[in-house]
Amino acid sequence: MKSSGREQLLHAALEHFAEHGVGDRSLRSIATSIGTSHRMLIYHFGSRDGLLTEVVAAVEAAQREALAELTAQPGTAPREVVLRFWATVSAAARRYGPLFYELSAHAMQSRPHAVQRRETLVEPWLAPLTDLMRQAGVPPEEAPVRARISLAVARGLLHDALVTGEFAQADAAVAAFADLVLPAPAAAPRP
């Protein structure tokens, strides 16, 4: 399937921001950097804030799609889902992680392009993570709390790995955390 000009521009902007950060660059400067005109960016996104809003949405959608794909695989143990999702996210974070945290900071500062991020940064993740906890055998009343803790721990470990470059240690910490937060699978009954 061929992507549209809008999708190509969005992808080029995402890659540009991943490489250089968002900063306070003008729409003209961004357009020049990605090989288009500011008029094309205005046509497709309305403004710099509109472009950044779409970049935020694209980053969030890709992560949620990855989790949805993993949880949709029948017979995959919740711990395996957690470890596979971590591997997917941490691999992508080597490229997009600094952008993720920069845009998260923009949400904390209530910048116009990131205001919606306040609604998408945590809340949409809680339902699928709560379901995963329940599938693992976490009691229903504890599952939402463990889901929120898991999201916070994963983001903290991701931040640490991006700052220090110690992804192997973060991988080990995620595996240890999964053992702590997810109940051990029930042993098969002996014949």
From TrEMBL:
Q: Protein name, please?
A: TetR family transcriptional regulator
Provide the leader sequence positions: none
**GO MF term set:** DNA-binding transcription factor activity; transcription cis-regulatory region binding
Q: Where are the transmembrane segments?
A: none
What organism is listed for this UniProt entry? Pseudonocardia kunmingensis
Domain HTH tetR-type spans what residues? 3-63
Q: A Pfam family this protein belongs to?
A: TetR_N
* DNA-binding region residue numbers: 26-45
Q: Which UniProt keywords apply?
A: DNA-binding, Transcription, Transcription regulation
